Amino acid sequence: MMDIKENLKYTKDHEWVKLDGNIATVGVTDFAQVELGDIVYVEVDTINETLEKDEVFGTVEAVKTVSDLFLPMSGKIIEFNESLNDSPESINNSPYDDGWIIKVEVSNPNEINQLLNNNDYSDLIGK
After folding, report:
1. How confident is the model at residue 50 (pLDDT cuts 50, 70, 90)?
2. Rg for the chain, CA atoms, rounded
3. I want to staple 3 with a disulfide (CB 3.0 to 4.6 A). Which of 20, 30, 51, 57 is the partner?
4. Residue 40's pLDDT is what?
5. Which of these, 41, 42, 12, lies nearest to 29 by C-alpha position?
6. Which phi-psi region, left, alpha or beta, contains residue 87 (left: φ > 0; alpha: ψ -120 to 50)?
7. Is the pLDDT of residue 1 over 70?
8. Is the pLDDT of residue 127 over 90?
9. In angstroms, how far is the first alpha carbon of the chain from the final one?
10. Are 125 and 2 in contact (CB under 8 A)?
11. How far is the C-alpha of 105 from the C-alpha of 25, rounded, in Å?
């Protein structure tokens, strides 16, 4: 059973967002980590950069593919989950908790309204 949290927002690129004030925590969804397979490396070289919504902020490398990560909301990338350097498989094991990827200081909190809710995301992936 695919895990889709009710309290999160989602992108069509299979990322999740949790907004707390003007700080957004971003990761990949349970569906995405299953599709990617075993994740072996996460690269984010955009720390302290301000990016626009939908710009590439990093990549996730799995055994069978490399996928770009797209910023779901405009803002400054203020933190990378350093534990992923040693344990990238945290994304597979705990995509919504230990496997978060970045934190973003959001420049336009209203962009959250452009993201999918849990029901819309369920429809997108056919669950």
Report:
1. very high
2. 13
3. 30
4. 97
5. 12
6. beta
7. no
8. no
9. 9
10. yes
11. 9
Amino acid letter, residue 77: I
In this prediction, residue 92 carries a pLDDT of 97
C-alpha closest to that of 125 among 17, 21, 30: 30
Contact 63, 33 (CB under 8 A): no
Structure confidence at residue 3 as a pLDDT band (50, 70, 90) = confident
Distance CA 80, CA 83 (A): 9
With b meaning 16 or more CB within 10 Å and e meaning fewer, what string describes 53-78? beeebbebebeeeebebbbbbbbebe
Domains annotated on the chain, with CATH: 13-125 (2.40.50.100)
Structure tokens at 94: 């705990």
Q: How many residues does the chain have?
A: 127
